Amino acid sequence: xxxxxxxxxxxxxxxxxxxxxxxxxxxxxxxxxxxxxxxxxxxxxxxxxxxxxxxxxxxxxxxxxxxxxxxxxxxxxxxxxxxxxxxxxxxxxxxxxxxxxxxxxxxxxxxxxxxxxxxxxxxxxxxxxxxxxxxxxxxxxxxxxxxxxxxxxxxxxxxxxxxxxxxxxxxxxxxxxxxxx
Length: 181
What we know:
With 181 residues, the protein is α+β, with helices and mostly antiparallel strands.
């Protein structure tokens, strides 16, 4: 149970920006705050409940290709439709809208992340980004008969591998598909 006075004290402590975030995130406060001194109730952890995102459907198109098992026949395969790119600036604007950070803070954090990640990847470290996932470097090489015959020119196809985190994998399992027209 919260009273109007305790809720307003909480809001005063966190400021107008926090209030805007709560309203944008949840649509309203957990209870009617318009009547002073009335007891306010809400379920524990209300502010920690995950936001519901509008479930967009991933679009695909069908492409006819040679069947890898039988090269004499063709089959139709689904291929994802790229709906465009989100720029770093657009991503930053969205983060500003759902956080208490300024546009400069968000831009600076993204820039520093982009500048710092290659350093650690090139040191052979994996980068864990929490529930989002992990990045690491991988490569292939030609085989040789003995270790003395190997040189670094045999290394090829250097790439960054992304492994989604548990929550990201769960989101991928829930994906819905829609055929593109």
